Amino acid sequence: MTAPHAAKGPPGRVVLEGRYTRLEPIGPQHVADLWRATVPERYAYLFSTAPASEAELAQRTVAAAAETDPLWFAVVDRVSGTAEGQQSLMRIVPEHGVIEVGGIYWGPRMARTRVATEALFLHARYVFDELGYRRFEWKCNDLNAPSKKAAERFGFQFEGVFRQHMIIKGQNRDTAWFAMLDGDWPRLRAEYERWLAPGNFDANGVQKTPLRVS
Asked: What is the count of structural domains for the chain?
């Protein structure tokens, strides 16, 4: 076992490029796209409520762009050039090498597509390979079955439930914890790269083989 180490530092406002996806520091230029991608029902388990108007979303986006933890990114579909969602790196603790992906909102046009999978991959690759983090976390409401299923599909391991962890929107939240470690990452990275290869998709972008991370 290698000695524990701190990460190189906090993440920065960088652009992360993939084959199908680009993560960009969020800003006013993404508001119109993100408003078109807004579906109120998809905010059920997020900390925030759905924006009531494009103007409200613009105010939130300006505020988000100024934050450093969470550090927000727009998820851009490289084919269309439009922002179809957002996600953040948060609860950033470089001295312990721990960081979380959170605040994930993936709109209906990107959810369950290679754009979404690559969005997660780009952040994982950044925090492990470039910044040297030891632990990459995913947390969600224990009632959010789709989020828990997604975490396991992406290679995060279930670690347990923190009961009565938070009060969100006036309701109790039991929080399910998942994580991947730097020791897991070489195997997971190789499988992501295999899955994301162009030859794994047909002409309509449908996968030929699934992501196998277990």
From this structure: 1
Question: pLDDT tens across 97-123, in order?
Answer: 999 999 999 999 999 999 999 999 999
pTM over 0.90: yes
pLDDT digits (tens, 9 = 90+) for 31-59: 999 999 999 999 999 999 999 999 999 99
Q: Which domain holds residue 128?
A: 16-199
Distance CA 194, CA 120 (A): 15
Eight-state DSSP code of residue 42: G
CATH number for the domain that contains residue 61: 3.40.630.30
Instruction: Tell me whether residue 214 is in a domain.
Output: no
Q: What angle do CA 139, 101, 24 make, to 5 degrees?
A: 155
CA dist., res. 128 & res. 131, Å (int): 6
